[in-house]
Each structure stands twice: as structure tokens, then as C-alpha cells.
Amino acid sequence: MEFRHLRYFLVLAEELHFGRAAQRLAITQPPLSLNIQQLEASVGAQLFTRNSRGVQLTAAGQAFVPAARALLDQAQQAAREARDVSQGLVGNLRIGFVGTALYRGLPDILKSFGAAHPRLRLVLQEMSSSEQLIDLRHERLDVGFVHTTHVPAGFSQILLSRQPFVACLPTGHALARRRRLPLAHLHAEPFAMVSRAVSPDYHERFLGLCADAGFVPEIGYELRHWLSVVSLVSQGLAVALVPAAMRQAGLPGVVFVPLDVDSPPYETHCLWIGERHTTAQFAFLDAVRAFAVPIE
After folding, report:
1. Global pTM?
2. Domain range holding 246?
3. With bands split at pLDDT 50, 70 and 90, how would you rate the model's confidence at 13?
4. Domain check: are 192 and 256 in the same one?
5. Residues 260 and 173 both lie in one domain
6. How many CB atoms lie within 10 A of CB 229?
7. 185: closest CA among 261, 130, 77?
8. Would you say 61 and 47 are in contact if contact means Cβ atoms under 8 Å apart?
9. 128 with 199: CB under 8 angstroms?
10. Which residues does 64 contact at the CB level (< 8 Å), separation at least 6?
11. pLDDT tens-place string over residues 58-96
12. 270-283 pLDDT, tens digit each
């Protein structure tokens, strides 16, 4: 018994007509008849009855249909597995990411890639941008999603998203209902922010925006995660400048107000070491490109 016999059998079982089955299989009727006879001899039972009224499955043929389908499915699955292993599309892919990527692009990438490559397991780790750069250089990560204005030498990159900063205020704040907000109006407020150690680029940009607005901010809280920043604001303990994507966090007790000046965009880059690559990595980067900011 060969897999060809099973495929011919299943097509004939669906069509119950030698002419139509042969046409679907792109062969002539004599080879189809010969293969069915060979299969019946191998099975040791008649699978079809043939007479002037057409072709019908015997009881043995009806019982053989699900078994034949299962055998073909197993063979196709085994072939896919062997092909995936040979192409490097089985195993683990280590992905680092900053928290805001969960609100801008990363979930769509994960869904798309997971559907296309179910045998590749993505090992996700939330890390600061600086931590990811270290782990990428030491090959502890395959791909990272970081926030930076300066991509270090030796890294390749895809710009995933670009977004403005917005003011994050408690809902009861006197300025919470403004349509747009001059940053200088917050000069006397304590700020919560992501610490310099976690995101030095953001830290410098924040201080620069405040300097342009004519004041030195009072930094009351330095935290590791954007969600912690927004949560602290929701308690009425501070105000903050956060990426616009944090609106999607859905935390109660906060409002997000656009600034009245254009601020440098907050960019998320997908990074990897340029000369190091695998088939799995290339496949993942193709998924990233499908959701990336269009090249201008």
C-alpha cells in the first residue's frame, strides 16, 4: 500500500465516478482503476462495487475512509515537521520587549507569526531597552523591541511604531478637561517617570521638553514600567508625560491630554544583531515588517 493509493481511493470515494475522479487527479481512468485494484488487494477486501449504475462504496470501503484520511494526515504532518526542522522553524525564539510595545503593534505580530509558525515557541521577556541591548549582544535574545533615539552600531533595525507624548493627569486635576495642554502649566507639579537607568533616551527627552517649556521638573517618582507610572498618576500622586499608546492600558482614574507643541516622537524599534541570523529569526522579522511604520 502506498500513499498514492490512499489519495486515489479518497478522491474516488468522494466522486463515486471514475471519470470525474481521474479528472481531479489529472490522470486517465486505466491507472486509477489499476491503483484501486492494487489497494483492494493490499487491504484484502473489496472497497467499491462497480456496475452499470455507477460506483458505490462497500461496507469495507466506508469503514476504510476515516482510516485512509488519518493515514494521509499523519503523513502530511510528518512531512511538515521534517521540513520545518530542516528549515530551522522548530524550537524557541527569544524575544525581549518594552511594556508599551504591548499596546502598539506587538500583539498583532505575535498572533500573525503564531498562526503561520505554530511549531516555533516564542519566549517573551519584558525588559528595559538597555537590558535588551546587553542581552542581544551576548546572544541571550534573538530579537528585541526597544525605545531609543540612537540605534547602536552593529544592530539592524525595523521601525515598528512612532507616537507622540501626551500629558497623563488624574481625572480630578484642574487641567484634565483641556483639549490641549501647554507643558509649562505643569511646572509646579510632581512628575512620575520611567527612570534614567531603564530608559536614558526618554529621561533626556523629558528633561529637554521641560527645559524648552521654561522649567526644571520636580521628579517625585522614578519607576521601571510605564504601567506603574500611569497607575501612580491614577492615585493622584503625580502627573506624567507618557507615550500615547498608554491610553489603551484602560486604567481608571486618569486622563490623557495632548500637548500644545509637537514633541519628538516616541519610537519603538525592533533590533537584532546584523550578522547573526537564523531561518526562524528571518521569519519573525517578516511578520514584524508587515506591521511596521511604512518607509517614507
Report:
1. 0.64
2. 165-264
3. confident
4. yes
5. yes
6. 25
7. 261
8. yes
9. yes
10. 9, 43, 45, 47
11. 888 888 888 888 888 887 776 666 565 555 556 789 999
12. 999 876 677 888 88
